[in-house]
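Bumping my old thread because nobody answered last time. Still need a sequence for this structure:
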């Protein structure tokens, strides 16, 4: 039995070249575990007490994501998993489940100290395994972090794009329906007899209102009162749908005095067709304006995406205004900011020198810091972003009035995999990535926090 077991252990790739007597020591001090399909080798949260050597079968690794567990890897025959010498792992991060008949050699950590004395070669081989595992796990978590960030940004962007896109569909449909009434309006207009001077006088009023671009500053009460006053005047002068027209006229800030002025220019019998024509022109103008504004909003969002993702650019440093990346990130997170009714204060110093930046990487910094600040605040919170030059450095403060960071963990927040967010909502790499990217730019990032006031301060040397 032991000879067969020794052969199995010798076949493990990590143990190639390890003396047989050292492998026999491992067998003598370990337990052989037999599992069937569906059995757990370990569960999330179990204390990390054992090193496992898979001699036969497969162990499926599932990590929590949201309210579910997602398969991230399958550890096959010959794999060494669990706690390893010099590892700081405290507990299992996920579940390990056998996919079929499986045999595992299990060594308790109480034997690790003796292993160091018995077999330096085995310890060295296991440390190499730990290094590779850490590197692979970090790469996986970084990919998860990017995917989670992408999910947040894409959801917000979809919402931001949906509003102007819906406005275009709605306004274009209304415009199409409105234009179908043009032939009837045209019949009424060509029957009007007005002098060129009268036409010019009406046009002067009309186009002065169009030039205002639908800008008026009436309160709801003032708007309602003016609409009722204009509607009554129109209907008193034989205009049908006076209330519908009044709404359009007030939108373009036509006053009662201007309505009466047009009434004095036009002969009484032509008042209905003239005001019908004015309503037709202004309604068309309003719908075209709505389509234009919505189209521009979509173009701005697309430009923000290009700026944020740095599309069509080589992944090299380039001179960049630090405000550009911050602003595009705020746009990308706009939906989340609006959802929580966050007040954003931009306290920017003008004409800051440009910095030599890896732009895409710096946008990850702004995304992580601003997104964390939004998460920390209650609805109606306040986010302030301050930039200034101090000697030969550019400094940026990201300030929120959220719950703050507890003093007992503030020194750990930049550590890899440290997170205070609930399972599935953070990988613990966001601030680790921030620090690495800032270091890459020869800068620094510090944090001070108390309840209601947290400041992340970044400093970038201009010579970098």
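Sorry it took so long. Here it is:
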């Amino acid at each position: 039995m032991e000879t067969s077991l020794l052969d199995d252990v010798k076949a493990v790739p990590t143990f190639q070249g390890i003396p047989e007597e050292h492998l026999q020591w491992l067998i003598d001090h370990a337990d052989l575990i037999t599992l069937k399909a569906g059995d757990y080798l370990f569960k999330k949260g179990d204390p990390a007490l054992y090193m496992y050597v898979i001699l036969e079968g497969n162990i499926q690794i599932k990590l929590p994501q949201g309210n579910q567990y997602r398969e991230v890897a399958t550890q096959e025959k010959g794999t060494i998993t669990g706690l390893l010498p010099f590892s700081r792992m405290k507990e299992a991060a996920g579940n390990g489940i056998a996919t079929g008949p499986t045999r595992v050699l299990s060594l308790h950590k109480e034997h690790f100290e003796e292993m160091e004395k018995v077999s330096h070669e085995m310890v060295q081989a296991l440390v190499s395994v730990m290094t590779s595992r850490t590197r692979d796990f970090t790469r996986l978590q970084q990919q998860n972090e990017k995917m989670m960030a992408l999910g947040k940004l894409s959801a917000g962007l979809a919402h931001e794009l949906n509003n102007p896109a819906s406005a275009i569909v709605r306004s274009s449909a209304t415009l199409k329906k409105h234009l179908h009434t043009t032939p009837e309006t045209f019949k009424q207009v060509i029957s009007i007899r007005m002098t060129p001077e009268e036409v010019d006088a009406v046009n002067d009023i009309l186009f002065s209102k169009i030039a205002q671009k639908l800008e008026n500053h009436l309160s709801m009460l003032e708007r309602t009162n003016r609409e009722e006053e204009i509607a009554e005047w129109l209907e008193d002068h034989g205009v049908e749908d006076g209330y519908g027209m009044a709404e359009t006229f007030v939108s373009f800030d036509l006053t009662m005095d201007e309505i009466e002025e047009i009434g004095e220019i036009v002969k009484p019998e032509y008042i209905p067709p003239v005001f019908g024509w004015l309503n037709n022109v202004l309604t068309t103008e309003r719908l075209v304006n709505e389509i234009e504004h919505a189209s521009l909003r979509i173009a701005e969002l697309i430009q923000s995406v290009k700026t944020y993702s740095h599309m069509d650019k080589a992944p090299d440093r380039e001179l960049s205004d630090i405000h550009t990346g911050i602003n595009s990130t705020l746009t990308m997170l706009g939906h989340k900011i609006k959802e929580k009714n966050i007040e954003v204060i931009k306290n920017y110093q003008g004409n800051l020198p440009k910095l030599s930046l890896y732009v895409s990487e710096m946008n990850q910094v702004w995304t992580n810091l601003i997104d964390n600040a939004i998460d920390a605040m209650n609805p109606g919170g306040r986010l302030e972003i301050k930039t200034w030059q101090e000697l030969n450095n550019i400094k940026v403060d990201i300030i929120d009035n959220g719950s703050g960071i507890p003093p007992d963990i503030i020194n750990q927040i930049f550590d890899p995999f440290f997170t205070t967010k609930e399972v599935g909502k953070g990988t613990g790499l966001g601030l680790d990535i921030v620090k690495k990217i800032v270091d890459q730019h020869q800068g620094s990032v510090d944090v001070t926090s108390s309840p209601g006031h947290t400041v992340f301060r970044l400093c970038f040397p201009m010579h970098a």
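The two ends are 65 Å apart (CA to CA). Let me know if any region looks off to you.
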